[in-house]
Design a protein that fits this description.
By secondary structure, the chain is mainly alpha-helical. It is 59% helix and 9% strand.
Length: 172
């Protein structure tokens, strides 16, 4: 029998009791969504770095192996490699802001709000901040794509998925 404060979660055929309170569940769901957005952004930057460094006339195995190294680099290194292939620095402030907010989310946000000793108001503020970071990261991916398309560096179709409604729309 579940107690009043226990939350039963089910994924497919697997179920478990969430061991913390509902505030933590909301916080962790928000953090999980934001971290998913961050990883998607990192994969986008990786793909663009790989795309921008490929020589379309070469199918050399060494070149393919060299581009695979991007998939194990930090976001900061990926951004530096990405910027090496751009005609201007117009996108640099956005990339740096996305990197800085990603680092704050991953390394400092729980400490900032004093988790696990947070008040209800702390949880609300933390979740609002996390959702703001998530939105910044998502918007940054769109802006990078728009930047590449506007400068004819890539022929792109970019789709956006609203994480609240699941609505898919074409942006670029």
């Amino acid at each position: 029998m579940l107690g009043d404060e226990e939350t039963f979660l089910r994924v497919g055929n697997y179920g478990f009791v969430f061991q913390r309170g509902r505030n933590d569940l909301a916080l962790f769901v928000s953090l999980g969504g934001a971290l998913t957005e961050v990883q998607g952004f990192e994969m986008l930057v990786e793909r663009y770095v790989k795309f921008l460094t490929l020589d379309a006339s070469s199918e050399d195995t060494v070149q393919t192996e060299n581009t695979e190294r991007f998939f194990s680099q930090s976001l900061g290194i990926l951004i530096k490699n990405f910027q090496k292939h751009l005609p201007d620095k117009d996108i640099a402030p956005l990339l740096e802001r996305a990197r800085d907010r990603r680092n704050y989310l991953v390394h400092k946000i729980l400490r900032q709000y004093g988790w696990p000793l947070m008040s209800d108001d702390d949880y609300i503020r933390a979740i609002q901040e996390i959702e703001g970071i998530r939105e910044l990261i998502q918007d940054s991916g769109v802006e990078i794509s728009r930047y590449l398309k506007d400068r004819s560096l890539a022929n792109l179709v970019v789709l956006s998925i609203d994480h609240r409604t699941g609505e898919v729309k074409q942006i670029i």
